[in-house]
């Protein structure tokens, strides 16, 4: 009888302790992640877009979407099927390509002289 009471007590305490710990958010995706459930059909002006991410229906969310981030910190859900979305993505990708191409080019000798903080032009 004493053994059963000990077993019940251990089970009860274990259940209470486990219920106090939050579930692991990694199993369900980030807690601050909000899925797109519908698309906007109103085109965004390119000047207000500061970035984007792709939402996949194979992960946490139910639909595939492009989530644009605006300069006002808004999230706008769109489908890649719309022409304005394709144009915005192409424009953003070309900007990224230009930035990465600039970084991969070697500096010229004059540019190196101008960027070296130890170089002084003393008379």
From TrEMBL:
It is found in: Secreted. Residues 32-92 form the Chemokine interleukin-8-like domain. Gene3D superfamilies: 2.40.50.40. Coiled coil: none annotated. GO terms for cellular component: extracellular space. The keyword rRNA-binding does not apply. Residues 1-26 form the signal peptide. The keyword NAD does not apply. This is Chemokine interleukin-8-like domain-containing protein. It comes from Phoxinus phoxinus (Eurasian minnow). The lineage of its organism: Eukaryota, Metazoa, Chordata, Craniata, Vertebrata.
